[in-house]
Amino acid sequence: MGERPVEFSDRGGWWLAQRRPHPALRPFLRSYDGYWETEAVPTRMRTLPTRTAVMIINLGPPLLLTVPDAGEPDREYGSFVAGMHDGHGMYLSPGGQRGVQLDVTPLGAYTLLGVPLAHLTNAAVELSDLFGRSAHTLVERLAAAPSWSDRFDVLDAFLLRRLEAGPAPDPEVARAWRLLNGDPAVTVAGIAADVGWSRKHLTHRFREQAGLPPKVMARVIRFQRAIGLLTGGTGLADAASACGYYDQAHLSREFRALSGCTPRELIGGQLDQQRVTTLAEPA
User: Are the C-beta atoms of 61 and 10 separated by less than 8 Å?
Assistant: First the structure.
């Protein structure tokens, strides 16, 4: 498994080691992202809703995480999975972080985690609560591995076993996911007609397996598209039009609802000043 090269990059206080996963896993995640901090500097970071569930395999000190709309105080997490979210959160790193991040498509997470993703909506769950003793074994093996290539080989083997044993999403749900990602103008009614289900049944099954109702997922996808355009220099009005917002005011309201910021605050300042993370997403 180790024939795929590991690429290293300096992110300004962070180092990143990346490698593509086994080909059988690539429909579900783009890369393994190993990271470590060169300085133990506490950092508060904003998290945004994305098209992925996030698995953090922590080889450093615990993180203090605020989960959107969870109704719970901040709590410490070691290795954990954050499910699909429709709001922003915060986490506090004490510095000296080291670990691996996996950004997994919702349907990939449904299979690899082996639980309905609706159970993880707007929530974070310790890896041990999902995988039991095998989570501790995984962390121990990653910590003991002599190189990042060896760590990624360990992850390949672990996830391939999960893939073989996990549930497959309904073909109709998989089709709905592709339609949502492919057409900014698609409607839930149009998707339901395409897959041959009622809107109610589609919403129920999609939320169970993908973590969010299709209408909410469409909001998140549109929000992420807008971030990409604005980060690339597109103006607010043009981004609003390209992403299917009614107008610029509609885009701004959605940014406040999903990120807690105006578009200019998020793109123009906080991306640099607070290291706001939007998390890499599989294509």
Answer: no
